[in-house]
Amino acid sequence: MSDSTSGRRPLAPRGEAARSLTPPLADARPAAVRPESAADAAPLRVGAGTKSRRGAEDPAIVRWTLIALAFLAMTILVVIPLANVFYEAFAKGVGTYWDNLYNDPDTLSAIFMTLKVAPMAVALNVVFGFAAAWAIARFRFPGRALLTSLIDLPFAVSPVVAGLLFVLLFGLQGLFGQWLREVDVKIIFAWPGLVLATTFVTFPIVARELIPLMEATGSDEEVAAVSLGARWWQLLSRVTLPNVKWGILYGVILCNARAMGEFGAVAVVSGRITGQTDTMPLRVEKLFQEYNLPGAFAVASVLTLLALITLVIKVTLEWRTRRELEEASRLRTLRSEA
Amino acid sequence: MLDVNRRILPGFGLSLGYTLLYMNLLVLIPITVLAVKASQLSWPEFSEAVFNERAIAAYQLTMGASFLAALVNLVIGLLIAWVLVRYRFPGKQIFDALVDLPFALPTAVAGLVYSSLYVKKGWLGQFLVPLGFQGSYSRTAVVLVLIFVSFPFVVRTVQPVIEDLDADVEEAAACLGANRLQTFTRVILPTILSALITGFALAFARAIGEYGSVVFVSGNMPYKTEIAPVLVVSNLEAFQYKQAAAVAVALLVLSFSALLAINVLERWSRRRYV
Hints:
The complex is a heterodimer of chains A (338) and B (274).
Chain A: H1 13-19, H2 37-41, H3 60-89, H4 94-102, H5 105-138, H6 144-151, H7 159-170, H8 177-182, H9 191-217, H10 220-227, H11 232-261, H12 264-270, H13 280-289, H14 293-337
Helix pairs in contact in A: 3-14, 4-14, 5-9, 5-11, 7-9, 7-12, 9-11, 9-12, 10-11, 11-14, 13-14
Chain B: H1 2-8, H2 12-39, H3 43-51, H4 53-86, H5 92-98, H6 101-104, H7 107-117, H8 125-128, H9 139-164, H10 167-175, H11 180-209, H12 212-218, H13 228-237, H14 241-273
Helix pairs in contact in B: 2-14, 3-14, 4-9, 4-11, 7-9, 7-12, 9-11, 9-12, 10-11, 11-14, 13-14
């Protein structure tokens, strides 16, 4: 049984699902988070093995009806919209498509704005995610459980409300508005506000990947390294980071996808100044409002392409971690037999 | 072991301090400021901002549409999770990967596409509109797009639990004379119930806060297709900051209590069956 799902999601879920009730990308964590899954889950699996287990198998007619229904649902929900984006974007030909993207300075500036804001938000959250994971997964301290659940808080906040938070702090009428005007710093209606709002909505993603991963890898190797005289930078670069590098990359991919696509929070803080504070999703909406559908779909097609690339990298990373884990558990078995 | 860590491993103070600082600056202090801002309104002003007729219509739409969408996702999600775990068919890996698309796709793109699919000349609208199905600029449109953005949650919470189901139990049920349907409703469904509820809760919570995709498809007509987050924006555009903050607080309370209620429900169902 070696299909796509076997190693992906593990024995953890019941406890895992209970721990947190918070959304996006929640269970898309890498296989590394739950180690034994691939090996242990395999023997239990039903329906697709070589031996038929009749008590646990559905009749062929049920099977094929359900498969057909699932395909129908996926086609209507996901596949048709996906095809439609590219169809509409290229409806007036490749030349127009290119014009809409490249020869529209406002669209270009929106693309650059997204390329500037998303990496900053991702970088901020990676540093935070690593610090939080180090503190939470390596040490015990009072309030640890509370801290862990507080990290998920931004997922429960509507993006529009997230944007509003920063308007109330840094807007002209906001808490620091007067002071910011005196020192002549613009946060709202400028790129720093976009970074803040984007960072807020993507805040938990990297930490949520890294905390369970670092808990799973354990601290034995690190304690050994320190007792052998490793300094903190050696510990970091030789032991800790190599252990969690795929987890970090996974978090970065998910965080980046969300950051580039964020709409609600960014719409509130940007002021939507065409050519200055529009990001790609905001540009899509503006073109849509101007009835420039081919233009809107052209920008949307670029975002869709980014989403598809994200999915491909995500699947590759999951496949990779699964293979490493299978290898590790095989070695473990060999060692215990010897 | 872990108590020893603090004496051996470096960086406890630094990492915890940085985590607390960052979280306070970015999340906790801003939310406190929001609450303070909303509390500056007197009670009549607050209730006028939060409970006026237009706002109540918006809450009703937000709650109703989110609930319906989550309900539909419960069925579709269970179906897809079941098919992905139990059956083999060509293209399964691509199918599995595509389930996550709504997470990866920007909501603005989802809104844009859904607004063009269900109009009279759209790919799906050309068949559906003559049948009287108005899938754009209507409440139906809101439900449809919410189904899309929240649909992976149920699949991804239920899938691992179905993977863990023990085949022996199902065989035992069959040996004891249960037919497949009985096995499903009496044996399988109770086991996956709490995962289903969790998936439902996640989908529901996500749908309540959703803004980007809905503004494209709904037309945002007050009393008819306006959702609650739009109220925040329209208050803001009228420079009514305190009112915007009040509605935002109401929204936060709404989504927190929805999560809390379903958390309790989920705990109850787990205690009952496991």
